Amino acid sequence: MGKYLLLGKLTFEEYFVYRLNFVLWRFRSLVFFLTLFFFWLAIYGNRSEFLGYQKAQMLAYVVGIAFLRSIVLGSRSADLAGQVRSGELTKLFLQPIKIIGFWFTRDIVDKFLNLLFTILEITVVLLIFKFPLWFPQKPESYLFFFILAILALFLYFFLSFSLSVVAFWTEEIWTTRWLFGVIFLEFFAGAFFPIDVLPGWLTKIIYLTPFPYLVFFPLKIWLEQLSTVMILKAILICFGWLVFFYWLAHFLWQKGAKNYGAYGG
Amino acid sequence: MEHMVARLIKIWLMFASRAAQSQFLTLLAGVLFLIGKIVRFLLFFVFLFAILSSSKTLADYSREQVIFFFLVFNLVDIMIQFFFRGVYQFRPLVISGNYDLDLLKPLPSFFRPIFGWTDILDFTTLVPLWGYFIWFVFTNHLFTGFIDFALFFLLLLNALMVGFAFHLFVCAVCILTTEIDHLIEVYLDLANMARFPTDIYQKGIQYILTFTIPVIILITIPAKALLGLLSWQWLILSLVISGLFLWGSLRFWKYALTQYSSASS
Lengths: 265, 265
Description:
The structure holds two protein chains of two kinds.
Chain A: H1 2-17, H2 19-44, E1 49-50, E2 53-54, H3 55-73, H4 79-86, H5 89-93, H6 99-129, H7 139-165, H8 173-188, H9 200-207, H10 216-222, H11 228-259
Antiparallel strand pairs in A: 1-2
Helix pairs in contact in A: 1-6, 2-3, 3-6, 3-7, 4-7, 7-10, 7-11
Chain B: H1 2-25, H2 27-55, E1 57-58, E2 61-62, H3 63-84, H4 90-96, H5 99-103, H6 111-115, H7 120-139, H8 146-177, H9 181-192, H10 203-211, H11 215-226, H12 232-259
């Protein structure tokens, strides 16, 4: 356990070595948040309700996206693909540390830092615009939100890890990650807008993928727009996806490690 | 002068041809990249269509006008990436010191950094997009006259000039700090704000988008010109800002070159 704590400390310190990178990254997150915030403000105008969302609910959804991007989608495991291709992974093989534990520790530090700064940034924006946050009325909503967010955090980790491990077999890893880990992920997870504003047939297709359980369903729980049965169903499906990607990540890792050529390492 | 331009075009075509050949070596990556671009475009399009079919307007723009802004954003964004993608390859040249070899060639010093890599995949998306754009303008009666049409193309050229100036600025920063990726991504994020008509943002943000990284001049101004909504004051202002931006970038580039340390060579 001690070595993972030390790794966490080193990862934390790394961010303060490359301060400009970190500042620019936070700036980018803020720009993304502001774009969505103003877009929905303009769409609502004087309306109080639109497409089944009250104005406060939609803005809470946008704030929720910012938080879940930090907690769930904030990740360093994408770097694993680069390490496989460059051969840098070799030094990790030689160390008495579990690779999955190594990347999960780095992920947690990344999430922690992003969350901290997201809270600061969003608080400032909300104070400037004097906009109240939407909070659930029922106490159980907090519990269900928390459970699904935690499951989503693990689901995204194993999904992202599985994508990175594909680097053992292909040199075109960045496009694979870009397509599945950015384009599909962000749209289908509801990380741009609520999925249910799209046409019904498209929404149904998206529900068949693991992505909506990362952002969309946790936020629907927070907005109290799901019945208890629907919530339990969402948690169960998310858990099913988590088990699948946990297995897939381990399976691909074991196969891939045998295939590792240590180029340049 | 004409002879020099013809020579530079010939060299650019050679660069583009080499880049295309290199991309055809990793065909799968190209196909995935292309699928990602098309999916992103279509999903945004469906989203905008679904939202605007219900709301009818956004910041007093009709559904067709908002989609028109979105199309202009895509055109400008892809054209800039098509012409200036060399920037993404510049950092390794600086870090390795290989940029020395380009400085010895009888070419403008910015030629390789800016035009050294042309993305054929961007070109393949540009052709159908231009076709769809023209079809969309005429079928939705957004064509307001030949003068507006000519003004649109003039301002599109102006946008390319601003794009060139910004990318040159980034290259100069790269020489001074070896940092490039995040700056380009900040530009992309700010440019993404113009995916929607920039009138939806608060005045302060509009000033930032006009005078810092002038995405309003890149995208909103040409779009407004074609819609016949551009005042002559904005026309002059945009030309003046672009000129100043280009002049400033060239000066900064010249300064950065004096600081180039030829590291590792």
